[in-house]
Amino acid sequence: MSYPNTLIFVDLTSDDPAACAAFYADVFGWENDPRPYGVFHRMVPGGNALNPDGSESQIGNFHIGIHNAANTRPHPDADGVEPRFVAGMGRKPRLWILVSADDSVGRILADAEKRGAEILWRDHYWKEFNGLNHAFRDPWGNEIVLWRKGGENPEIPDHYTRE
Questions:
Q1: Helix (H) or strand (E) holding 25
Q2: What's the pLDDT tens digit per position in 72-118?
Q3: How far apart are CA 91 and CA 143, in angstroms?
């Protein structure tokens, strides 16, 4: 294989894709692109990935989908198939969001919680990947990890847990 298989999209599951899309549009400022409304919503963060020097590259930022648990599309059966519910409390994929330098983790967590999210943890430093992280579970059970780069010589506040 001369070129790798690449990840092109990630979907979140919801029993109300329109409300879930509105949640992410409000919390992160992403564009809500219903395709069609209530069935599948594409969330578009806008902008491009950054080059090492901080300038924008030609690579657009990753989009996220929100599909309806009652009838996950696309599927060969137009009526969909079981299961028709959102994920429970067990382990599931998590979505990792790199927080912009001009935004605040505190603002994001407060906005998410105000809209029904549960805060899973705050203020943790993961040395292995040099990141400051925090997490919440949205009202549909999807888990989101917020990530801030630690930088070359990270200053980790004393109250942060560490690993």
A1: helix 17-28
A2: 878 888 888 888 888 888 888 899 999 998 999 999 999 999 999 99
A3: 9
